Structures are given as C-alpha cells and as structure tokens.
Amino acid sequence: LAKTTQPISMDSYEGQEVNITCSHNNIATNDYITWYQQFPSQGPRFIIQGYKTKVTNEVASLFIPADRKSSTLSLPRVSLSDTAVYYCLPVRKLSFGAGTTVTVRA
Amino acid sequence: DVKVTQSSRYLVKRTGEKVFLECVQDMDHENMFWYRQDPGLGLRLIYFSYDVKMKEKGDIPEGYSVSREKKERFSLILESASTNQTSMYLCASSSGTRLAEQYFGPGTRLTVT
After folding, report:
1. CB distance A91–B107 less than 8 Å?
2. Is residue B28 exposed (0-12), middle (13-18) or buried (19+ Cβ within 10 Å)?
3. Are B33 and B22 a contacting pair, CB within 8 Å?
4. Least CB-CB distance to B43: which of A45, A49, A95?
C-alpha cells in the first residue's frame, strides 16, 4: 500500500509562496495524487489532482516528478485565509493521514 | 453545488446504545464514504460504498456497520456505542468517474458517555 509522508507543520507569512512536499514511494503506476484542504470545523475540500509533471488551477499548482515518488503542492502568495491543514493522498488509498498544518502570519 | 448533509452536528449517546448517523447527497454520486477524524490521526476511512447495497471495509471498520438502500443515502451504525468511538464523523461522496474528488459534509461530533 502506498504510504504518504508529509511535514507535520509549516509556518509562512502573507504574500509568500508555500510549498508542501509529500513522499509516496510506493504509489501504484496507474494511481493519481490528490490534495485536500481543511479549515477548522469543516470537512476537507478537494484542491487539485495530478499524475505527472505539473497541474495548475485557480487555487494551487501541483508538481510531480517523473519518478512519481513525491509531489509538491505550491500555494502562491498565501493570505491569512490559507491557514489550514493540507492532505496529500493517492486516489486509491482513500484514507487521509495527519496532514500538514500550514499557519500563515501577518 | 454539491451538497452533502449529515443528520446531526452534535450527538451525545450513552455507552451501549445503538447509534445511527445519516448522510444524504444530492448529486447522484455513486461513491459514498464514512470517515472519523481524531486529533493527530487525520481522517481514517471506516467504510465506503460504490453502489446501492454495496460496501467495502476501510481501515477501521471494527465496531461499525453501514447501510446503503438508496443511492443518495449512506448510514453509519454503531451497534453498541463505546467511549472510544467518541469522535468527529465525516461523510463524503464522489462520482463514479472522479473517485478522488470527494465532497464532504459538515461532520457530526459524537460524544459517548
């Protein structure tokens, strides 16, 4: 089973770019990587999904290298409202780990 | 917008009681999920269902059962509630073609005393 590892927490300041890297050494060859965001007292919200190279949407970018053993979620120019827990998980794994708590300070 | 609703935001039950948590989605999604969330442990999958009357065990099914008689409704049942089942319970749904894009409900905070 693919096991994911990501940092427990990260601190940043408003306007900076935040990059969260997730390791998934044993991801299946046909599996995708997804990222979710969770605010306090809410359920997680789907952010982005990718298989290889780079995917960008209005919220974030996702970089997945050719070996697919890791992925990096990039949040450009964060604001205080981006303070949340971010989870990465292979699509087929379904269970979320503890995630990365990102704290954005003024 | 997809809407996933859960029957209660807060619930207090006694040890040994049978507890029903209901989840309803309005987007005709094939897949539905039940998770529990505990501090430091993230969200752990209890059960999921990919079709009416179909279910698969997740990582922590012990002490739980589920029922899906209609496509839009997925119920989580605690046959005999115990204090270690005090937790936040989250329901989610996703379409058959986009398994990964789950839509979550607001959660039910269950306290078992």
Report:
1. no
2. exposed
3. no
4. A95
| One-letter identity of residue A20 | I
Q: How far apart are CA A30 and CA A68, in angstroms?
A: 11
Find chain A residues with C-beta within 8 A of B58's C-beta.
Answer: 94-95
Task: Read off the pLDDT of residues A24-76 as tens digits, 9 standing for 90 and up.
Answer: 888 888 888 999 999 988 899 999 999 988 999 999 999 999 999 999 999 99
As given in the structure block, the two tokens for residue A8 are: 């427990």
How does pLDDT run across B64-107, given as a tens digit for each residue? 999 999 999 999 999 999 999 999 999 999 988 777 789 999 99
User: Exposed e or buried b for every residue in A14-41, given b needs 16+ CB within 10 A?
Assistant: eeeebebebebeebeeebbbbbbbbeee
